[in-house]
């Protein structure tokens, strides 16, 4: 998906970014929290793609969405520098950011990847900020895909002279 830069600015200037995030939040509520929808992830992934496309091309829109998903992340930046960051800093239940993190741990691969890429774009591609916002356990999958952390390779027993079953 490629969105013209002028359209991103148009959406931001007319308050549409917030509306798109609210729609995405509603879809996540139905599918990831209440589980009332059938195949609702198919509604969520396009919304996440649109929001990601907007924030990747418009810094001001990125800040707006960051404040909606990870409120207070900037203020708490130095607070957890020495901590383990295993848990997200601002993941109050039922907030938009909490729902995105919930989708990041979904068993549905497309939803998991879309949510992770959205959080990555919203945090400006900064690995430390991404981990602070989502927690290391939630972030490690995408960090491994991006080659930022080494994830263990699958061991099927063949390397040790054992026969696979």
Set down the secondary structure blueprint.
Blueprint: H1 5-13, H2 16-33, H3 41-57, H4 59-69, H5 96-104, H6 109-122, H7 127-134, H8 136-145
Helix pairs in contact: 2-3, 2-5, 3-4, 3-6, 5-6, 7-8
How does the overall form come out from the CA principal axes?
globular
**Biggest sheet architecture:** none
What is the succession of H and E elements? HHHHHHHH
Q: Mean pLDDT across all residues, rounded?
A: 82
Give the low-pLDDT segments: none
Content of β-strand: under 5%
Structural class: mainly alpha
Keywords: Chaperone, Guanine-nucleotide releasing factor
Pfam families: Ric8
Family: Belongs to the synembryn family.
GO molecular function: G-protein alpha-subunit binding; guanyl-nucleotide exchange factor activity
Give structural attributes.
about 160 residues, mainly alpha, 8 helices
Summarize the structure.
The protein is mostly helical and 165 residues long.
């Amino acid at each position: 998906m490629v969105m013209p830069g002028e359209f991103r600015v148009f959406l931001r200037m007319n308050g549409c970014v917030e509306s798109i995030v609210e729609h995405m939040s509603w879809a996540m509520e139905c599918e990831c929290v209440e589980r009332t929808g059938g195949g609702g992830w198919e509604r969520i992934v396009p919304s996440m793609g649109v929001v990601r496309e907007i924030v990747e091309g418009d810094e001001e829109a990125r800040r707006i969405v960051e404040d909606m998903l990870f409120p207070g992340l900037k203020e708490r930046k130095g607070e957890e520098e020495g901590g383990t960051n295993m848990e997200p800093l601002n993941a109050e239940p039922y907030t938009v950011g909490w729902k995105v993190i919930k989708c990041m741990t979904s068993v549905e691969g497309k939803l998991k990847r879309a949510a992770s890429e959205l959080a990555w774009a919203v945090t400006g591609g900064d690995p430390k900020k991404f981990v602070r916002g989502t927690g290391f356990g939630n972030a490690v999958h995408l960090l491994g895909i991006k080659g930022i952390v080494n994830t263990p390779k699958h061991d099927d027993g063949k390397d040790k002279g054992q026969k696979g079953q």
